[in-house]
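wait is this the right file?? whatever heres the structure
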C-alpha cells in the first residue's frame, strides 16, 4: 500500500552531466518507510511541501536504493531534463519533499537462483535497473549491465552501478566509449557470444529500461535469440495510481487475443516485453 510521506533532503550529490543522486529521510524520526521492490517508483514534488504550487503535479522517479531499516532513507537518481527536474536539482539539504511510494509493480526475477540477469539500460533508464542489479548481487547473482548513451560524457548515468562492483559494458552512439552504436546492438553481440559458449543462452533473462524505441529494439533482439525479456516502461504521469488513465500501453497475450490497454503506473511499469504492442 503506497504511503504519502513528508521527507527531508539529507544530501543532493551532483554526479556530473546533469545527473544527481538525491537522498531523503522521513521528516519525523518515528516514521517508518514502507518496503519496496526493485523497479517500483515514487511520485515526488517540492511544491506543496515548500508552500508553493510549482510544480503543480508530482513527477515519477524510480526508487534507486534498497530498503534498509537501519538507514531509513530513500534515494532518487535522476537527470535534469525539464522544469520539474531543474527545480529539484536546486533543492538543498533540509528542504521538504512530498513522496508517494511505492507505486507500480517491480521485477520478480531476483527470486530465481538459476537465472542470470542481463540488464539493458538507455540513458536514465539505469535508475530503474540499478537496484535490481544490487539486489541480484546480494542474492549471489552475477548480473551483467549493458548501458547505452550518446557520448562518453553521459557515462555518469551508470557510474553508481559500476562503483557498486557490477559488471558494466558500454555502447555510445558516437563511439567515444565502449562499442559504437546502439545498446540493442551491444545486446545482440553479447547474446551471440554467449550462444556459442558451452551453456548457450540457458538461464539468461533480459530486463530493460530506457526510451521507448530503445526498449522496442531490445525486445526484438531478445525475441530473436529466444531469451525472456521484461521491460520497465517510462511515461509521463499525472497521478501515479491509475486514476487519470494517462499512461496506458496496449498489450495482448497472443496474436489472436484482443488488445488490452493497461496502466503503466498500476499494472506496470514492468511488463513482459512479448505482451507489449510496440
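ok assuming it is, sequence goes like this
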Amino acid at each position: 500500500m503506497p504511503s504519502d510521506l513528508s521527507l527531508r533532503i539529507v544530501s543532493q550529490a551532483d554526479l556530473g552531466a546533469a545527473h544527481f543522486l538525491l537522498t531523503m529521510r522521513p521528516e519525523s524520526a518515528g516514521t517508518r518507510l514502507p518496503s519496496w521492490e526493485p523497479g517500483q517508483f515514487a511520485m515526488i514534488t517540492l511544491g506543496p511541501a515548500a508552500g508553493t504550487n510549482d510544480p503543480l503535479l508530482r513527477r515519477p522517479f524510480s526508487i534507486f536504493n534498497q530498503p534498509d531499516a537501519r538507514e531509513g532513507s530513500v534515494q532518487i537518481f535522476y537527470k535534469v531534463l525539464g522544469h520539474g527536474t531543474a527545480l529539484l536539482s536546486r533543492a538543498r539539504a533540509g528542504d521538504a519533499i512530498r513522496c508517494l511510494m511505492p507505486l507500480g509493480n517491480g521485477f520478480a526475477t531476483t527470486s530465481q537462483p538459476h537465472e542470470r540477469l542481463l540488464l539493458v539500460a538507455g540513458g536514465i533508464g539505469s535508475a530503474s535497473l540499478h537496484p535490481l542489479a544490487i539486489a541480484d548481487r546480494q542474492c549471489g547473482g552475477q548480473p551483467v549491465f549493458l548501458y547505452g548513451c550518446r557520448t562518453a560524457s553521459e557515462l555518469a548515468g551508470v557510474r553508481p552501478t559500476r562503483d557498486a562492483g557490477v559488471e558494466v559494458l558500454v555502447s555510445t552512439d558516437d563511439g567515444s566509449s565502449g562499442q559504437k552504436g546502439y545498446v540493442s546492438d551491444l545486446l545482440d553481440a553479447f547474446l551471440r557470444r554467449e550462444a556459442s559458449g558451452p551453456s548457450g543462452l540457458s538461464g539468461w533473462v533480459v530486463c530493460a529500461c530506457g526510451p521507448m524505441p530503445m526498449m522496442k529494439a531490445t525486445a526484438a533482439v531478445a525475441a530473436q535469440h529466444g531469451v525472456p525479456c521484461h521491460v520497465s516502461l517510462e511515461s509521463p504521469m499525472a497521478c501515479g495510481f491509475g486514476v487519470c488513465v494517462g499512461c496506458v500501453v496496449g498489450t495482448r497475450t497472443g496474436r489472436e487475443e484482443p488488445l488490452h490497454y493497461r496502466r503503466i503506473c498500476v499494472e506496470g511499469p514492468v511488463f513482459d516485453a512479448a505482451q507489449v504492442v510496440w
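The CA atoms of residues 237 and 246 lie 6 Å apart. so i think its the right one actually
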